[in-house]
Design goal:
- The chain is α+β, with helices and mostly antiparallel strands and about 200 residues long.
- It has three domains: about 50 residues; about 80 residues, K homology (KH) domain (GMP Synthetase, Chain A, domain 3, 2-Layer Sandwich), CATH 3.30.300; about 60 residues, 2-Layer Sandwich (Ribosomal Protein S8, Chain: A, domain 1), CATH 3.30.1370.
- The protein is about 45% helix and about 30% strand.
- The strands form three sheets. The protein has a three-stranded antiparallel beta sheet. Strands 4-5-6 form a three-stranded mixed beta sheet. Strands 7-9-8 form a three-stranded antiparallel beta sheet.
- α5 packs across α6.
Length: about 200
């Protein structure tokens, strides 16, 4: 992946210069901004490091394909570039192996890819990996169960502890129930057994 560096005094001007020179829109790139003061006069210096999302997609496709092939599996990929993330859907004849117990293998591949991109660029990229819509289906199940349990807590006034979840799933529950009246949510416990507890708000 090619990195693009821009330095100047004004962040907005640098961003415009970057977009013009690269011939892209802002949602087609990923960048980080560093602001510092330099010299005896403490002059402001702004540095922007950027990478193209298309380059990230190509790198991710090759990285995941090579990694999954090393597991002895064949896989086909479908990629989609979102405003704040990159979605990669995997299709294989061995989805149970690819997904792993409770999605752990899939999550591990996602984490390794994220770490690899960050190591190369210093930019955190929100990469989402899914196989046969496993995560999408699981997300809907979590949302359904969270709302169902929240309704029960609101009616009975008795708190309910949900099953252990990873940080992404816990965040999903907190988000889904953030405006639900009569209840509140808290995360309790230590990893990997950390879970969400739904409690009455009064």
């Amino acid at each position: 992946m090619k990195e693009y560096l821009y330095e100047g005094k004004n962040e907005e001007e640098l961003i415009l210069k970057m977009l013009n020179e690269l011939g892209v829109k802002e949602d087609e790139i990923l960048y980080v901004t560093k602001e510092e003061t330099v010299g005896l006069l403490k002059k402001k210096k702004v540095t922007i490091k950027a990478i193209l999302k298309t380059d990230v997609l190509e790198y991710s496709k090759k990285f995941v394909t090579d990694l999954v092939n090393a597991m002895g599996l064949d896989v086909k990929l479908e990629t989609k570039r979102g405003e704040n993330n990159i979605l990669i859907k995997l299709y294989s004849d061995n989805n149970p192996i690819l997904i792993g117990k409770n999605g752990r293998t899939l999550m591990s591949i996602q984490n390794i890819l994220h770490q690899s991109i960050y190591a190369k660029t210093g930019i955190h990229v929100n990469i989402l990996l899914d196989a046969s819509n496993y995560k999408e289906k699981k997300q809907k199940n979590i949302e359904y169960m969270a709302k169902k349990l929240a309704k029960e807590v609101a009616q009975t006034g008795i708190e309910i502890k949900m099953d252990s979840m990873n940080s992404y799933e816990r965040h999903l529950v907190h988000d889904v129930l953030s405006n639900y009246k009569g209840i509140k949510t808290e995360s309790e416990g230590e990893e990997p057994n950390r879970c969400v507890v739904i409690k009455p708000s009064k």
